[in-house]
Automatic annotation (TrEMBL), chain A:
It is found in: Cell inner membrane; Cell membrane. Signal peptide: none annotated. Residues 225-420 form the ABC transmembrane type-1 domain. PANTHER family: INNER MEMBRANE AMINO-ACID ABC TRANSPORTER PERMEASE PROTEIN YHDY, MEMBRANE COMPONENT OF AMINO ACID ABC TRANSPORTER. Its main location: membrane. It holds the Pfam family BPD_transp_1. This is Amino acid ABC transporter permease. It comes from Meridianimarinicoccus marinus. The chain crosses the membrane at residues 44-65, 109-128, 148-172, 179-202, 222-248, 260-288, 300-323, 344-366, 397-416. NCBIfam families: HEQRo_perm_3TM.
Automatic annotation (TrEMBL), chain B:
This is ABC transporter permease subunit. It comes from Meridianimarinicoccus marinus. Belongs to the binding-protein-dependent transport system permease family. HisMQ subfamily. SUPFAM superfamilies: MetI-like. Keywords: Amino-acid transport, Cell membrane, Membrane, Transmembrane, Transmembrane helix, Transport.
Length: 432, 404
């Protein structure tokens, strides 16, 4: 047996330890070789790109970093810089309330700030499904609360508006079993009747009993980034339901309904938003009964909503068309009526498909709110181009201000698009 | 016992208009139609009341009146004594000019960036996605204003070009970038230049025929012509020969510094360049995403199949991937072109005299005819949108997959 041991002495008892991969294939060098220098052409491209990045950073970073934060005017800035080419951030330091709030009374900045913070509380349950569903109640209250916080005045007007909604909802619940659509119409009519007939007297009566009021702020005092936010959020929130209705109308088998929706969608999509804003600012007054004076902000919100609704409708139509026909037929074969079928089977799936395009439209709408500066509303761009750049202190400080506005928009828009990608991954039910 | 004969038709009752699915649709449609008619009737009635109260009427006569303002950027001659209609025409041409330039530039940027974002070079791909994200997430109005402030503030004034130790100099001794606009050489057409242009146009038609012939040859015999080289040859050689045979009939009028400003050449307003490049860079970022999505939509099997047939990477891209990707890319590309054209109305912000600046701006303010001006403005954009989508749909139909 010992012989046997000797005869296999040249066989190893344990395997060779694995060798480290060649330096050129692993680690940092390997990564560089595969991703940056895989061929001569690639290497040249990498070097050119590096040079371009270097040139850009060399131009921008010192300009940003050497900027002056403490100065009273552009001349003061230039004196402090002594010929060095750098930013004058002092303008943002000094004018940021104007950029963010416009001419909103400074003593009430807190109200606007609370409304802004509460927006995220209200949006949270809509955006993240993991949160308690009860928070949606707050989301429902939020529009009324915000109106009160931002515009001020008596609390009872928004409360009565809310009561009108509750009245409509109760009417809907009572009639729901008879017909979904009929109940909707009846609820709308009841709410309308409540608002038109009862709101003003009831609010007056309650205000005389318990005067809960904030100092009123006129719409024209609201400005800066606040306008972009108000227009963006209300436009997006209102255009989604309208867009769903338009999309359903366009897919409808009823020719007249379909025609109305097609004409509306194609008309709105065919003209630039700026012409619709012109309509809001100069033409809409002609179309209203003589003597009515409509707030410009409200007119613009209406136009922005109609504009976004047409695009939303097209996005949702894409989702409706992408849904297999079997889903519609399944709804029919279960004996559901049109609204049940749409509500319970078709729309949940169609909306999921259209999330990316809906989010793109929402981002586009938020960016397009800057266009109101052209009809002389003082949003963040209007503020920059108007009061700030034409002031004697800050004449000629373009880059810093426009850069600041650009960064503000970038943060929000990029955030929204990242959220939508997360949502898409979360809602993906197909197993690929 | 069940009856197999049709049940007796119940007599028509009024409640069936709401409850019976056969009639309900018609009822709803009539209600909707009446509601729309009443709504518009109400709007029009209000409008007539308001106009009567103001002592105004709807009339397009103002288009024939003297405009009384000057336009600095124009493609057709215009003086301030011309009519508002002609001012609107200048505006329309300016809109079309910036839309045309913008669409071409945006397409080039979009295709290059879209392809480079898929590059194997990690750094290049990252840089391109940074470009796309930055431009997509900041409003186009801000880009227009930023580029416009480059054009009007960062560039040297014509005065800086003067003297021996001038702080600014002309590019290639031909172009001058100043804060009052960009001066480029203007072509001077002399006798005989028509022949050169005709030869050039003929060679472009020749290129189109060559490409068609090359495709046919490829499908019939499998032989491939060097189309790119032949096209480039056809593009330059005949026109150059004609140019020299006719004795150099096309000259260049280069801008020269005279006194405090440049004379001669072609002056391009800074506002045009700002609008053009802002729209091109902004829309280019969106087109890049469409191009990338289109290329990624072509399944990997197609590339592998082409490689298995022995095709080289360049050829795979040109003959297999691009033709299929184009089908996915073109519909969103059309809507990007439409968006660019509509966004060109932001010219109003920087004083570029497009149709929004002339008809919807100065004309509207001078005549007070807001009603008519906005109406015409909308009509114009509507027509443009319909025209672009019509042309592009024709093209889309030509390239789309032919199924059964």
């Amino acid at each position: 047996m010992s012989q046997g041991d000797h005869s296999v002495a040249f066989v190893r008892h344990d395997p060779l330890p694995p060798q480290a991969p060649p330096v050129s294939q692993a680690g940092l060098i390997g990564w560089l070789r595969t991703n940056l220098f895989s061929s001569i052409g690639n290497s040249i491209m990498t070097l050119i790109t590096l040079y371009v990045i270097y040139a850009l950073l060399a131009a921008i970073v010192p300009w940003v970093a050497n900027g002056v934060w403490d100065a009273s005017s552009i001349r003061d800035c230039r004196e402090q810089l002594q010929g060095v080419n750098a930013a004058c951030w002092a303008v943002i330091e000094e004018r940021w309330p104007q950029l963010v709030f416009g001419n909103y009374p400074p003593e009430h900045y807190g109200r606007a700030a609370i409304a802004f913070v509460l927006l995220f509380v209200a949006l949270a349950p809509v955006l993240y499904f993991g949160l308690p569903r009860k928070m949606l109640w707050f989301t429902g209250l939020y529009p009324f609360l915000t109106y009160w916080l931002i515009w001020g005045g008596t609390l009872w007007i928004p409360v009565m508006a809310l009561v009108g909604v509750v009245v409509g909802f109760l009417v809907f619940r009572v009639l729901e079993d008879k017909s979904f659509f009929g109940a909707m119409v009846a609820a709308l009519a009841a709410a309308m009747a409540f608002w038109i007939v009862l709101t003003a007297p009831l609010a007056d009566a309650l205000a005389s009993v318990l005067p809960l009021a904030l100092t009123p702020v006129a719409s024209r005092e609201i400005g800066g980034f606040m306008i972009n936010f108000i227009l963006g959020t209300s436009g997006i929130a209102l255009s989604l339901p309208l867009g769903i209705l338009l999309a359903l109308g366009r897919q409808s088998s009823l020719p007249i309904i379909k025609m109305i929706c097609v004409v509306f969608i194609e008309f709105v999509r065919g003209v630039p938003l700026i012409t619709l804003l012109f309509v809001a600012s100069v033409m809409l007054a002609y179309f209203l009964p003589p003597g009515t004076n409509f707030d410009l902000m409200l007119r613009v919100i209406i136009m922005v909503t109609l504009f976004a609704a047409a695009y939303m409708a097209e996005a949702i139509r894409g989702g409706l068309a992408a849904l297999p026909k079997g889903q519609y037929e399944a709804g029919d074969s279960l004996g559901l009526d049109y609204w049940q079928k749409m509500r319970l089977i078709v729309l949940p799936q169609a909306l999921k498909i259209s999330i990316p395009s809906i989010v793109n439209i929402a981002i586009g709408l938020f960016k397009d709110t800057t266009l109101v500066s052209i009809i002389s509303m003082f949003d963040v761009i209007g503020m920059i181009r108007g009061p700030i750049l034409s002031s004697t202190e800050w004449f000629g400080v373009y880059w810093e201000l426009l850069g600041f506005a650009g960064v503000l928009f970038f943060v929000f828009c990029y955030g929204i698009s990242q959220y939508s990608q997360w949502l898409e991954r979360k809602l993906a039910t197909d197993h690929r | 016992m069940t009856s197999i004969s049709d049940p007796a038709q119940p007599a028509f009752r009024l409640s069936m208009l709401v409850n019976d699915t056969r009639y309900r649709g018609i009822t709803f449609q009539i209600i909707a139609f009446l509601a729309i008619v009443f709504f518009f009737g109400w709007l029009i009635w209000n409008a007539t009341q308001n106009l009567a109260a103001l002592g105004q009427d709807i009339s397009f006569k103002f288009l024939g009146e003297q405009a009384g303002y000057d336009i600095n950027q124009k493609l057709i001659p215009f003086v301030s004594t011309d009519t508002h209609l002609r001012a609107a025409m200048v505006g329309i041409l300016n809109t079309l000019l910036v839309a045309f330039l913008g669409c071409i530039t945006a397409t080039i940027i979009g295709v290059v960036v879209g392809v480079l974002r898929l590059s194997k070079n990690w750094l290049l791909a990252k840089v391109m996605s940074v470009y796309v994200e930055i431009f997509r997430n900041v409003p186009v109005l801000i880009w227009i204003l930023i580029i416009f402030s480059v054009m009007s503030n960062a560039l040297p004034s014509p005065r800086d070009f003067r003297g021996d130790d001038a702080s600014a100099s002309m590019v290639l001794d031909m172009m001058a970038f100043t804060n009052r606009g960009v001066y480029v050489p203007a072509p001077v057409w002399e006798a005989g230049s028509g022949v050169v242009v005709a030869v050039f146009l003929a060679s472009i038609i020749g290129i189109l025929f060559l490409r068609r012939f090359a495709t046919k040859l490829l499908y019939d015999t499998g032989r491939e012509l060097p189309v790119l080289q032949l096209s480039l040859g056809l593009f330059f050689v005949p026109a150059l020969i004609a140019y020299f045979v006719m004795g150099s009939p096309i000259g260049l009028d280069t801008p020269e510094l005279k006194g405090f400003n440049f004379q001669g050449g072609l002056k391009v307003q800074g506002s045009l360049i700002a609008l053009w490049w802002a729209l091109a860079l902004y829309t280019g970022a969106f087109i890049a995403e469409n191009v990338r999505a289109g290329i990624m939509a072509v399944s990997k099997g197609q590339t592998e199949a082409a490689a298995a047939l022995g095709m080289r990477p360049g050829k795979i891209m040109r003959l297999v991937i691009l033709p299929q990707a184009l089908r996915v890319i073109i519909p969103p590309l059309i809507s990007q072109y439409l968006n660019l054209t509509k966004n060109s109305s932001l010219a109003a912000a920087i004083g570029y005299m497009d149709i929004t600046g002339t008809l919807g701006g100065i004309t509207l303010n001078q005549t007070g005819r807001s009603f008519e001006a906005v109406l015409l403005l909308m009509l114009f954009y509507l027509l443009i949108s319909l025209a672009i989508s019509g042309v592009m749909n024709l093209y889309n139909n030509a390239v789309k997959l032919k199924e059964r």
